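Inputs:
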Amino acid sequence: MTTHALDAPAGGGLRWAVNDALVLTGRNLRHTTRQPELLFFSTVQPVIFVLLFRYVFGGAIDTRPLSYVNYLMPGIFVQTTAFASTSSAVGLATDLAKGIVDRFRSLPMARSAVLAGRTLGDLCRIVLVVFVMTAVGLAVGLRPSSFLGLVAAIALTSLFGFAFSWIQAFIGLSVPNVEAANLAGFVWLFPLTFASSAFVPLRSMPGWLQTFANATPVTPTVDAVRALLNDGLPLQHALLKSLAWIVVITVVFSTLTVRTYRTVS
Amino acid sequence: MEHAVEVEDLVKTYGSTRALDGVTLQVPEGRVLGLLGPNGAGKTTTVRVLTTLLRPDSGRATVLGIDVLKDPDRLRRVIGVAGQYAAVDELLTGRENLVLVGRLYHLPRAEITRRADELLERFELTEAASRVVGGYSGGMRRRLDLAASLVNRPRVLFLDEPTTGLDPRSRLRLWEVIEDLVRDGTTLLLTTQYLEEADRLADRIAVIDTGKVIAEGTSDELKDKVGGSVVVVRPADPADGERAMVALQAVGDPVRGTGGDLTMQATTGVALVTEAARVLEEAGVAISELALRRPTLDDVFLTLTGHGAEQAAAEETA
Ligand SMILES: Nc1ncnc2c1ncn2[C@@H]1O[C@H](COP(=O)(O)OP(=O)(O)OP(=O)(O)O)[C@@H](O)[C@H]1O
Ligand SMILES: [Mg+2]
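Outputs:
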């Protein structure tokens, strides 16, 4: 597609682009307050996972020198944010299906705002869910080494969720309907998050699976979050690898998403 | 004469479907053009091109002198559009929907509040203003969608089938609101499948079929195209349609319309009624109705396209 003014931001440039993104972030957050049940159920599932793993499987998993709950919670954090990011796919697909995207495209607003408003609003939701999971973790025995480490862990997890929101936004624009967005957003997250260091140490897995687990963004992010919560674990390598993944995913998928947004009708 | 909307030779293809096959039309400033056509005629595609939502393969379109392709952002400031399906946010209230649109037009806050109140009042939504749109009826959604398209006081308004799916009373009320807007000087391009709607709201009508404008003029001009009047024949038994058709071909050029009626241009006036009665009797076709009347836009459609509007719709879905 040739570049023409369809792609240019509305008059006022960056200032309006920011304004429009914030207006739509506000809309997205208001949606959340109008559907509290969605927020509730999106935290119920990880809470069930915490209880299952902590009390049912935990005793059989050897994570010494860490207590299993300290081992588990970083994995839960990362999996929960990955699952929560699917709302970006569903949200965009819904706006497309209901003609809302057409309404926005007929307005003199910044092209990027619909996407930025979606992922930023979903980021707020992700942060909220991570807070809830932190509280649940503390209740079942999670003991972070330091407060600062906990804050950094929450920040890294949220950034990871933000990066995944862009993958989901791309999916939301690429599938034909809302149901497909829901499925296509979810299915791959199960193998991706379970085949990682999230719930059990990699050393207990067959070699080929370890290779896979090490090649995904999930394992380094879980390892980094775990090291931030537990002093004494190796941090630097995992953290750098995780941040690199986050940057690459965000750049690649925001570019793909913006490009797709311009051509969908 | 300066035209508010000028469209020249628009072409848009989807694979082998020619959605637009050289559409050309104009709307003079302050006037109403009705774009009348059956399902799949290309009405929505035309509106989407004119409202910057879709790039045509070729052709030219300007609105208020602004080129749709070259300066879409400037154009978006001065037009309003209500699409075929109400594009309202179901999780927001009626008022929040209008305020959202106002903020995306970058209007001052005080102006947004004033405008939202005014539009809610005008569309009889004041009472429902703080209710979530998910609980609105179809008619209320339509009205809210139309209100949203007016937030920026557009000089040119595009309405894609604004009353499709509404009950007769809601349709009548929406027509009155639209007539008000036009009285205030808004230029309007309206698409519709309802001949009655085009007849009532539009100054001029462009009949569109399979991506082409096949006739254009005032409702009277279009009716004159059919000739002074038409003869309508309704066989008593719908199964007799084919036999009646064959019999009538001896005296005229019948076309089959909706509900099995056969229509012929009454080139010879009243004489044709007598002749039709005679050939039908000879063929042994019992009829329940035989009449001479002024043509309706339905007849125009039949004569121009060789098929009725609803019939084309049925073929589309078949
Ligand atoms: N995105 C698309 N992909 C493929 N074909 C399309 C697409 N949009 C429209 N068409 C085709 O283009 C033709 C014109 O469609 P359009 O929606 O403009 O018709 P319309 O006059 O608005 O019909 P309706 O009364 O049903 O709304 C139809 O044959 C339709 O199937
Ligand atoms: Mg249409």
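Remarks. Chain B has a mean pLDDT of 89. Residues 61 and 67 of chain B are 6 Å apart (CA to CA).
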